[in-house]
Design brief:
It is a multi-pass membrane protein. With 344 residues, the protein is α+β, with helices and mostly antiparallel strands. It has 8 helices and 8 strands; from the N terminus they run ββββααββββαααααα.
């Protein structure tokens, strides 16, 4: 096993060569051991006839010329090549006469912003040759090599490398779903925290909801893709790899079910938030109505004593005192009653 930089093996060429279109990392494994690295793309034909050699070509931000150079050598279908060069293709597995085409997404949740960061990964599986295409180096392919075993690679070939890639990708799904679950629990606490502005709660809710929708859109198709890889007529999964692929498939199902529960959870949070806002509005209206009633009774009394006909105490100083006492007493009684009922 070697690390991402390729520190062991025979005939290693040091740092990956830089091509005009981007970084290209080439590896050749013979008997499960890395024997040659960073050879030119034009030399791929040297390994095509060797049944004991597995070739892995990793193209990071390639241009059309690099892709077509590989496509001509491996006879890749033009539609698959176009999908690899186009951004935003859905996760899928397409079967062609000379190869398989796998498209998937590695994901990571930025908890601070609530944004889901994803990177598209395309893979051509042509016999004992694997070609991976990435728009940038965000996804750590070194994690695949760190998990690899020389004996297993020798026994299972390209299928073992493909399993390593999708295993790392699916592990990323679980990490993102777990982080999203924790963020939603924190959001639930924010709902009842009066020190948190409502605008902050609203913004956070819709940020997490958007990320959840995107995450589901990228996880759901992987169930069909992994199931397609496991079909015996693809010739990719050996008997020794069936259990490993089945484990990845089960993890995809679990991640899918987890996102379903999170969808229900965030819908519940949004409904609860609306209910809390409605209750707060009702409380404000109740208080305003209580104060309006307190003001209305003294206004009624003032209007009575302000009429233009004689009444007891009219024009007398004690009449004004009685009027004032009634005003204060009625307002105080209403205030106490409303206060006890929780209306103020």
């Amino acid at each position: 096993m070697v690390d991402q930089g390729g520190s062991g093996g025979v005939g290693l060429a040091g740092a990956p060569p830089r091509h005009p279109g981007g970084e290209v990392r080439t590896r050749a494994f013979r008997g499960g051991v890395l024997t040659e690295e960073n050879f030119p793309l034009a030399d791929v034909h040297r390994f095509r006839g060797d049944d004991d050699t597995v070739v892995w070509l990793d193209l990071c931000a390639p241009d059309a010329e690099q892709i077509h150079l590989v496509a001509d050598e491996l006879r890749l279908d033009p539609h698959a090549v176009e999908d690899a060069l186009s951004a935003g293709e859905r996760a899928k597995l397409d079967r062609y006469p000379t190869h398989l085409f796998l498209n998937t997404y590695a994901v990571r949740l930025d908890v601070a912003s609530g944004e889901l960061v994803s990177q598209e990964i395309s893979a051509f599986i042509a016999g004992r040759t694997l070609v991976t295409v990435r728009p940038d180096d965000t996804f750590d392919l070194g994690a695949v090599l760190r998990r690899s075993n020389d004996a297993d690679l020798a026994a299972h070939g390209v299928g073992y490398l493909v399993h390593g890639i999708i295993d790392v990708v699916v592990d990323g799904y679980f990490t993102a779903v777990q982080a999203l679950d924790g963020a939603l629990e924190d959001l639930e606490d924010m709902l009842f925290d009066e020190d948190v502005p409502e605008q902050t709660v609203h913004r956070r809710s819709f940020e997490l909801r958007k990320s959840l929708v995107q995450l589901r859109r990228e996880i759901l198709p992987m169930r069909e893709a992994v199931n397609g890889l496991m079909r015996r007529d693809t010739g990719l999964v050996t008997d020794g790899l069936v259990a490993s692929y089945q484990d990845v498939y089960d993890h995809v199902l679990r991640a899918t079910e987890w996102t379903d529960s999170l969808r229900d959870m965030i819908n519940s949070i949004l409904d609860t938030n609306l209910t809390i806002q409605s209750n707060r509005l009702n409380l404000v209206m109740k208080k305003m109505t209580g104060w309006a009633a307190i003001i209305a009774v003294p206004t009624l009394i003032t209007g009575f004593f302000g009429q233009n006909v004689p009444y007891p105490g009219n024009g007398e100083s004690w009449g004004f005192s009685v009027d004032l006492v009634i005003l204060v007493l009625s307002a105080a009684i209403l205030y106490v009653v409303f206060r006890r009922k929780g209306w103020l």
